Amino acid sequence: MQLPFTHEQFLEVFGAYNTAVWPVAVLLWLATAGVVLAFYRRGAEVSRALTVLLAVHWAWSGGVYHLIYFRAINPAAVLFGTLFIIEAVILAWLGLGSQRLRFSASTGWARVGALLVVYALAYPGLGLLFGLEYPRLPLFGVPCPTTILTAGVLLCAPPRQVRWVAVIPLLWAAVGGSAAFVLAIRTDLALVVAGIVLLAYIARPSGRDRLRAA
């Protein structure tokens, strides 16, 4: 896979991003931890807040990281940013509209999702653990932890509700996961796992599909 930028240029983008917007990244992490904790305590009644939180993640990653910072070294960031903003609009519509997603933490797949959510929250520390140095490393409020977090959350909703919502996260799991090997960003290798698990989940026939098959 040939990239239009080097490993050093990639890390320099994160250096500029983290130096400029680190307070937002901290607030987004705290908000995410709070909403996730509320979900695992209160269940489906937090579904709307959880969906809107994901929309904020995708809007921020697309509008700020991709279109302002990553665009400086990769022209494809315009396309990536546009897709991320589209995903944010879809999630916001589902979170605020009448046909909203309903999440549950009680299924076996939701337990797998919890592992991905915990990984996303631990993502900033894992980058440091794997040898990267602040501020030149991906922390929070950027595409890869956003996608891992989203995959984990979507595993808590019925497959038929999230099939279309999962398309853009799956695309980024493929793009970011393959780039992780080239750029040697070990924290992002979890994107491959998240993408495979999410794809397997949405490919399962729903109860309605099983009834039709019978």
Question: What is the structure about, briefly put?
Answer:
The protein is mainly α and 214 residues long. It has helices spanning 7-42, 47-69, 77-96, 108-129, 143-154, 159-162, 167-183, 190-203, 207-213.
- Give the low-confidence spans: 208-214
How many helices in DSSP terms?
9
Taken in chain order, the helices and strands follow as: HHHHHHHHH
Principal-axes shape call: globular
Strand content: under 5%
Number of domains: 1
Radius of gyration: 17 Å
Largest sheet: none
SS content category:
mainly alpha
* Cα distance spanning the termini: 44 Å
Number of strands: 0
The helical percent reads: over 70%
Round the mean pLDDT to the nearest integer and report it: 93
Primary descriptors:
9 helices; 72% helix; 214 residues; mainly alpha
Q: Explain this structure to me?
A:
The chain has 214 residues and is mainly alpha-helical. The chain is built from nine helices and no strands. The chain has helices at 7-42, 47-69, 77-96, 108-129, 143-154, 159-162, 167-183, 190-203, 207-213. Helix 7 packs antiparallel against helix 8 (190-203). The longest helix is centred in the first third of the chain and has 36 residues, at 7-42. Residues 208-214 have low confidence and may be disordered.
